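Final report, closing paragraph on structural work. Over the funding period we assembled a curated collection of sequence-structure pairs, and we close with a single example.
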Amino acid sequence: MSVKTYEGRIEQGQIRLRDVPLLPEGARVYVVIPESETSGSAWVRELYSLFAAVREEAAPYSVEKVDADIDAAVAAVRDRHA
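Its predicted structure, as stored:
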């Protein structure tokens, strides 16, 4: 298996790659996050990971609905770490 590396950024919760040829639908990709990008508090990393599995599923919902769900999740994590 050959591997090519492309640089990108997270923009509005989506991975945006620079200078990438058009990839076919369903193409397999791997995401590698530099250590410096994942630094910060463990609490923030845990909160972010709670949403990782549902980011795509949240796309059809309004910002207000997503914000309300995020507020509830933040409260739950704060309670757990209080």
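Residues 3 and 30 are 9 Å apart (CA to CA). The chain has a mean pLDDT of 81. We thank the funder for supporting this effort.
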